[in-house]
Amino acid sequence: MAPGRRPGWLLPVPQVLSETGLQLLGQAERIESGWWDGGDVRRDYYRIETRDGLRGWAFRDLAAPGPLWLQGWFA
């Protein structure tokens, strides 16, 4: 995996993110886990950039479609 594909700073708890002024950078990366133990997690992760030029890592929960959630920031 290329360096810098994961953020250097993960939030303790993901935060709902307003999509106003956000730009999605590239295509989604799907991450799935827990299918083997019933704790399914299916998310599409995106690299994002804010109006202010901050770059982050956000996801959509595919099991419960809704808002974009901020997971962390790139340094």
Automatic annotation (TrEMBL):
Q: Which UniProt keywords apply?
A: DNA damage
The GO biological-process annotations, alphabetized, read as:
DNA repair
What's the protein called, per UniProt?
UmuC domain-containing protein
Q: Which InterPro entries match?
A: SulA_CellDiv_inhibitor
**Organism classification:** Eukaryota, Metazoa, Ecdysozoa, Nematoda, Chromadorea
